[in-house]
Amino acid sequence: MSNYVIGFLRPEVSGEAWHQDEARIHALAAEHGRSIILMYYGDAQRPGGAVINRLMNLTYAEYANEIIAPGANHFEPGDIPALVKIADVICADTGMRYTIPRGDPQADSPQAIGIGDG
Predict the structure, then answer these.
(1) 8, exposed or middle or buried, with CB in 10 Å at 0-12, 13-18, 19+?
(2) Which is nearest to 82 in space by CA: 114, 52, 105?
């Protein structure tokens, strides 16, 4: 399994702090021995569902097993449960990792664990 990570943020959510949010994503990845292979900036102008679909496609194409975002507020309702079916989602602000419980690939909802716990 790779240690490849996609960074994700929505500049309109971060506002003027988006550069700091991007730096936090890179720092968290490096702290845990991961490599950010690309940063995806979700665009609020894209039609509903297009941002998450693009993020999922990038995750598949790049063989990433984690997505790091500044916080859960960068996702729309329902995005995290959809994403964890293909990659863990880590929120830099809380340090929480959203994942499907190991050994239960049929689980319907993600569980949140601390980064050091998983």
Answers:
(1) buried
(2) 52
* Measured distance CA(95)–CA(107) in Å, rounded: 22
User: How many other CB atoms are found less than 10 A from the CB of residue 41?
Assistant: 14
AA identity, residue 9: L
The DSSP 8-state label assigned to residue 100 in this structure reads P
Position 40: which residue type?
A: Y
Q: Cα 68 from chain centroid?
A: 4
The pTM assigned to this predicted structure is 0.85
**How far is Cα 86 from Cα 64, in angstroms, rounded to an integer?**
9
* H helix or E strand, kind and range, residue 81: helix 79-83
Query: Which tens digits make up the pLDDT trace of 25-51?
Result: 999 999 989 989 999 999 878 877 899
